[in-house]
Q: What sequence folds into this?
């Protein structure tokens, strides 16, 4: 089985032709649909390698057709790797060259002859970690995100999932108000359980400050003073608070995904993901919370699920998705782990007698 991980790098806008990238993204959308369109004023080299991807590692790129015609699909590119000892891997005519010796990314024949961009230390460390884990950066994709050029480095690794033991690691994904619950189960019994949440008091405090500053800025805007020094300083403070609110849930999501995958690898447990985000959204709507609060409490949950599945595939953790219940036909046990408003989980054993064992809330 092949697993992939992706790192997104922002490119300097003033050094790249945005219109050219848009046209290449449109050609990529057509290539997904098995059309070959040759544009005279675009570099032939990048067009040849684009259509060459049809029969080159097809599951990674040119495998899923975009839903909309002429949607801007990211352009797949081959990568040449130059390591610190001078050794090279990959196609020497690849449009993207990673010079790990000099910490430079070279992009060739994409709208311009060659553009060199220095790599940060954390990018080099990410590549080194993937190589140490048995992977390699074989592909890249260039495209636009919110009008800005980005390069996605795609690491690939061959991995064999381990055989699952008697352990099951069940993850119940809910809104941040109720938290993400996980339970380690062995032979139908809960070994450990925890409800992971953010600090809601601190989070709501930041949101209240964000609202107060927004109202104050609105008063300045209505009076025409929003372009003054005070108004600009206030606007920067508002943007900083807004970014901080989303950063709290984002950092928690990434940290928790890594923690759960490490736990699954430690016990060789079957990782079961119970995504209840839509149900949680409906509950928040029933509580008549403000739309902005609901949006914040649901932020980065999809990113958490995606990161959890990506890490599980990369490290070979056997995982599956379930909605509300998990069937274990081998032992005749059906586990239905769900969050009640009291915070309790329960396990039902199917047999002649239906027993229900409640486990009290132990989160914080």
A:
């Amino acid at each position: 089985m092949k697993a992939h991980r992706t790192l997104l790098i922002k490119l300097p806008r003033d050094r790249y032709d945005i219109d050219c990238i848009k046209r290449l993204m449109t050609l990529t959308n057509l290539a997904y649909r098995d059309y070959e369109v040759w544009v005279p004023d675009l570099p032939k080299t990048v067009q040849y390698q684009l259509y060459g991807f049809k029969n080159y590692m097809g599951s990674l790129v040119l495998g899923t057709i975009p839903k909309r015609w002429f949607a801007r699909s990211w352009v797949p590119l081959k990568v040449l790797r130059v390591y610190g000892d001078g050794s090279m891997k990959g196609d020497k005519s690849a449009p993207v060259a990673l010079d790990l010796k000099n910490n430079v990314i070279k992009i060739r024949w994409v709208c311009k002859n060659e553009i060199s961009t220095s790599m940060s230390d954390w990018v080099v460390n990410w590549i080194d970690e993937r190589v140490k884990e048995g992977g390699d950066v074989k592909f890249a994709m260039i495209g636009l995100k919110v009008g800005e050029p980005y390069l996605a480095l795609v690491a690939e690794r061959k991995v064999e999932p381990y055989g699952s033991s008697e352990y099951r690691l069940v993850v119940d994904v809910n809104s941040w108000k109720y938290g993400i619950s996980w339970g380690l189960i062995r032979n139908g019994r809960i070994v450990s359980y925890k409800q992971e949440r953010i600090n809601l008091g601190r989070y709501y405090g930041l949101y209240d400050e964000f609202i107060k500053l927004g109202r104050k800025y609105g008063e300045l805007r209505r009076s025409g003073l929003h372009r003054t020094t005070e108004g600009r300083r206030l606007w920067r403070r508002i943007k900083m608070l807004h970014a901080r609110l989303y950063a709290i849930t984002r950092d928690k999501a990434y940290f928790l995904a890594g923690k759960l995958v490490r736990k699954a690898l430690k016990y060789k447990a079957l990782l079961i993901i119970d995504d209840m985000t839509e149900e949680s959204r409906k509950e928040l709507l029933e509580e008549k919370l403000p739309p902005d609060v609901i949006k914040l409490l649901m932020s980065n949950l999809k990113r958490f699920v995606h990161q959890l599945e990506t890490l599980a595939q990369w490290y070979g953790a056997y995982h599956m998705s379930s909605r509300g219940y998990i069937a274990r036909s081998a032992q005749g046990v059906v586990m239905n782990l769900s969050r009640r408003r009291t915070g309790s989980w329960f396990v039902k054993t199917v047999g002649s007698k239906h027993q229900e064992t409640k486990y009290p809330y132990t989160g914080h």
Q: What stands out?
A: The CA atoms of residues 165 and 256 lie 22 Å apart.
